[in-house]
DNA sequence: ACATGACTGAAACAGTCGTGTCAGTGGAGG
DNA sequence: CCTCCACTGACACGACTGTTTCAGTCATGT
């Protein structure tokens, strides 16, 4: 149960890393930017690793809210892509990709398991959206794996090029109906 | 025109970052691991940024060799996936993803433009593999964008879960013919 | 023989890193 | 009033960062 001050500072730190990235964040500049001090951050989060872990969990909370609100049934993929391609979400998704890559390179530490966890989260949502008769078949598994791949590959493209038109039309062509 | 010693050390450093990652590499441990010294690395590459840039270019060279060898015509996507999913290439692809993510967070520095460049490289290969009559149409552009997205999304999944069977069957289902 | 240029070792530079220490605030509950 | 506890400021610690300075070594070309 985090204290009020803790969640307040976490929120500020979260806003900070959304624009500065998580990879080479350091306590002193971060503390200065959010009007705090390294002493307080260490006191509240125990260590830098604790802070990073809290920030990762905070980012994941945003993701889980989306997945909970997205619903099921036909059109999930289109709705997911709508959310993924929204310019307002770009900082969050860049942060997400950063954490994803990092968790692959450095399987220990606060990043541990981040990539695998998001794969499973999303696959589960896509599974829930499938018709019942394919949900537990090999074809169903392959199908939602393919949907997830398309969404994330398209996201990679979009984040790099910013060419929403081209990428959206590519995604849309796959799930028009 | 790099000297013999320079390419030799670059190759050793490349092998090092393939297993240690590029994000938090530092000169002293790297130099020690490859039997050199920070003095020499700085002398040969000018600065750490110069070294990182050289390493990125080295990684890109591996990628370009693949793209040159992959040929054109039907089956490119399947052949590309065969290469991407080969266990031997995993370190390279993890490094690739790391550089990709980093270039999005920190658009300046040695990473600049890395993500965008690889998108264009791959799209061009896929374009060359398309039948002539669609190559310059909007549908052709959307089609190869979609192929690229699928490949890279599948790669993300594979790197995180290692579940080659599931992912490969998902990719295969899209391009069986 | 000599000079040139590629390469290398040792040590130091100023700076930043995460973290620990010690000493306080300042408000809430007894 | 007094105590307790969440929180904070100032400062120092050792380790590490990229980079520089100064001094070589060694083979090569003339």
From TrEMBL, chains A, B:
Signal peptide: none annotated. The keyword DNA-binding applies. Keywords: DNA-binding. Residues 3-63 form the HTH tetR-type domain. One of its GO terms (molecular function) is DNA binding. Residues 26-45 bind DNA. This is DNA-binding transcriptional regulator, AcrR family. Pfam families: TetR_N (PF00440). InterPro entries: Homeodomain-like_sf, HTH_TetR.
